[in-house]
Each structure stands twice: as structure tokens, then as C-alpha cells.
Amino acid sequence: MIGKSSLFLRNTFRSLARYHDDGGVPGGNLPFSLTNRYKLTAYFVLFFGSGFGAPFLILRHQLLKK
Questions:
Q1: Nearest-10 Cα torsion for 12, 13, 14, 19
Q2: Of 32, 30, 48, 31, whose CA–CA distance to 40 is shortest?
Q3: Does residue 51 fall inside a structural domain?
Q4: Which of 8, 27, 42, 62 meets the CB 3.0–4.6 Å disulfide criterion with 34?
Q5: What pLDDT, on the 0 to 100 scale, is given for residue 22?
Q6: pTM above 0.90, yes or no
Q7: Which residue range is the domain that position 41 belongs to?
Q8: Integer Cα distance of 35 and 3 in angstroms
Q9: How many CA within 13 A on the CB side of residue 58?
Q10: Residues 6+ apart with CB under 8 A from 38
Q11: pLDDT profile of the chain (66 residues), mean per 10
Q12: Burial zone of 55 (CB within 10 Å; 0-12 exposed, 13-18 middle, 19+ buried)
């Protein structure tokens, strides 16, 4: 009897942990919102611009350093 109840509880908690979110919402698991296109564009420009511009800023700093 105890074995069956523990098996039932274990399966119940697994299913709750596995299916706790309704899902199916595009962008629901992202840390930023997709609804405002201008804010999203600014995030992308800052993210990719910082990665692309960092080597040039480091090079400029090294060349101007005494």
C-alpha cells in the first residue's frame, strides 16, 4: 500500500513539474518583450553593436595608451 501511494505521489509531482506552464506562446521564454518593435530593435543594436565594436574600442585604447 505504501509503495503504491509513493509511486502515485512521485508520478503526480513529476507531471506537475513537467506540465506547469501552458506554453505555446511565442517569445514566452525570452527575457525581453517582443511586443514593442523599437525597444527590441534597440536591444539588438546594443547587443550586436557592443560585440562588434568592442575590438575596435580596445584597439583604439591600446594605440592611444602611452
A1: 90
A2: 32
A3: yes
A4: 27
A5: 64
A6: no
A7: 37-66
A8: 49
A9: 6
A10: none
A11: 73 68 76 91 95 96 94
A12: exposed
